[in-house]
Amino acid sequence: MHINTEAIPGSVHLVDESGDLAYAIHEKEIVLVPTPSDHPDDPLNWSKRRKYLNMFCMVLYVMALGVSGSAVYSVITDITEHSTLTVSNLNTGTGVMFLFCGWGNLIWQPMALQYGKRPAYLFSVLGVTFSTLWEAYVKTGPQWIGSKILQGFFVSSIESLPESSVADIFFEHERGNWMSLYALVLCVSNYIAPLVAGFIAQGMQWKWVIYWTVIFDGLSLIFLFFFWEETNYFRPHIAPDDEIVEDVSPEMKVDEKSAANAVVGTASSGDESGTPAPTYTKKSFVAKLKLLDRSRPFMLWKLIVRPVTMLRFPGIVWAGFCYGSSLIWFNVLNGTASTIFSADPYYFSTSMIGLTYISPIIFCFIFSVYAGWFGDWLRLRIARRRGTGISEPEDRLWLFALYLIIAPCSLILWGVGAYHKIHWIGIVFGMGLLGGSALLGCACSVNYVYESYKDLSGLGIVSVILIRNTMSFGMNYGITPWVDNQGLNKTFIAACGISIACNLTFLPVVYYGKRWRNWTKAAYWTYVQDAIDNGMVH
User: Fold this and answer.
1) Is residue 116 part of a domain?
2) What is the pLDDT of residue 132?
3) I need a labelling partner for 206 at 20 to 30 A (CA). Which of 317, 459, 480, 517 fits?
4) Are the beta carbons of 66 and 185 closer than 8 angstroms?
């Protein structure tokens, strides 16, 4: 297979304005990117039922692991009262868990590429089940931290593998909706677990929060074993219009109409000389239960190092920073919710504090529609307005314009409002805006990486998660002394300014992102060629 290294990664022909492209949905003028093969087991060719079942499994997986990592947030007081563990032990364990949630992906994503996503998914659920069960029997602080290290490592796969499955199954014009669903479930799992756990702890002992989580994980593992099939698929060729080649001048003045093919390969269907198209046999149910994917040359160590080397790409570094800067406000929310609602003038009980998480859950659903359906519509709209049908990954980043307004306003309403003891409805509304809008940072950042560097997106998202969770790890340690030393008023006024500064960074990316991708194309295509030669691109 020959790769044209002059192609700019991420620039794609998404809308067929001329009506003469072979791989387009003609009645909708949408080009299918990437181009599917002729095989019925190619995930892009799956029936809607088969795709939806796979996405249901993804939702169940994210919910199972997300709940396991966040179930104890609202029962910290119960744990300290009925065990020898201290609040410091619990908070340290949470911080270490977040750190391993990021760095554990250096193992899971390479493992998924080397051996298949299915074994990575199943083994991670199995590991989470037993590491979570250990939490109910720990006696000392070091044991608790040890259990959270293991839990963080196994939960870490939730951060990078589901997005890869979405990219395997859906075309680029569909991907925003499903990435938004992933972000929605990821956020909701972290909000709904403390809500339910508060009531379980009140009606039963706190250990039953752990036991019910383990039961849920075990049942999920059984279901996923039988119904979640592998999505890795190596296509013998890449779409004729999958990447756009542009002769980019230093001033970025480009004649997009002269775009050529980035990758040239052989067609998989019958040719004009009369050679019949090959026939394929669809996988049986038993074949779908296989744990290991197709055999490949051993590249595990190279795949582990590759996410670190991809930090040379400015777009990936920015996506990690953007994702991290949105997640830290989620940490601020969790770190201050109990303090705010349990104090004067609110005096909420543990179960009532849990109920306040309904607000961010509701807003997560609202923002998921904005990030998903509206984001896909916006990208197609901009591609059509160019007149060439060319779409750029930066087009979707205009969604940040709303987040630029909502995030600082919600921080003021939450923190400064609590300082001035406004009515609890205002505080809960601010909580919802703050927690729900964090979904935008997740969805936009993940989509940007997958749309910019599709062929290496699985490893690229690991680079993003490394940055994101390292930022989260630092904030977990910093939020309590920050509030204690500065107070709610000064803390959240400063947070408002920091949020505005962080979110404004999307504007330079919109204008210079394409130039960054052009600068890094040589390194990117070198990595892609290496992956193609070893059957790692799908």
Assistant:
1) yes
2) 93
3) 480
4) yes
Q: Assess if residue 259 is contained within a domain.
A: no
Closest CA relative to residue 363, chosen from 417, 395, 403: 403
* Model pLDDT, residue 341: 86
* Structure tokens given for 92: 């340290």
Type of residue at 344: D
Structure tokens at 141: 């602080």
The total of other beta-carbon atoms located within 10 Å of residue 343's CB is 12
* Number of domain units in the chain: 1
Given its phi and psi angles, is residue 301 left (phi above 0), alpha (psi -120 to 50 degrees) or beta? alpha
Going by DSSP bridges, is the β-strand pair 2-3/263-264 parallel, antiparallel, or unpaired?
A: antiparallel
**Amino acid identity for residue 180 in this structure:** S
Task: Tell me 357's DSSP state.
Answer: T
**Does this model's pTM top 0.90?**
no
Which of 96-132 are b and which e, b meaning 16 or more Cβ less than 10 Å from the residue's Cβ?
bbbbbbbbbbbbbbbbbbbbbbbbbbbbbbebbbebb
Which helix (H) or strand (E) is 12 found in, with range? strand 12-13
- Residues pairing with 25 in the sheet: 30
CB 461 within 8 A of CB 109: yes
Does residue 285 form part of some domain? no
- Token pair for 338: 């109990």
CA dihedral 267, 273, 274, 279 (to 10 degrees): -20
- What is the three-state SS of 135-163? HCCCCCHHHHHHHHHHHHHHHHHHHCHHH
CATH number of the domain that residue 485 is part of: 1.20.1250.20
Are 256 and 246 in contact by the 8 Å Cβ rule? The answer is yes
Which residue segment(s) compose the domain that 396 sits in?
43-234+300-533
pLDDT for res 215: 96
pLDDT mean values, one per 10 residues, the chain (538 residues): 76 69 52 78 89 96 92 78 82 83 89 90 96 91 92 92 90 84 88 84 85 96 95 64 44 36 38 56 76 77 89 94 87 79 84 85 90 88 84 92 93 93 93 88 88 87 89 78 86 92 94 93 88 70
pLDDT at res. 107: 92
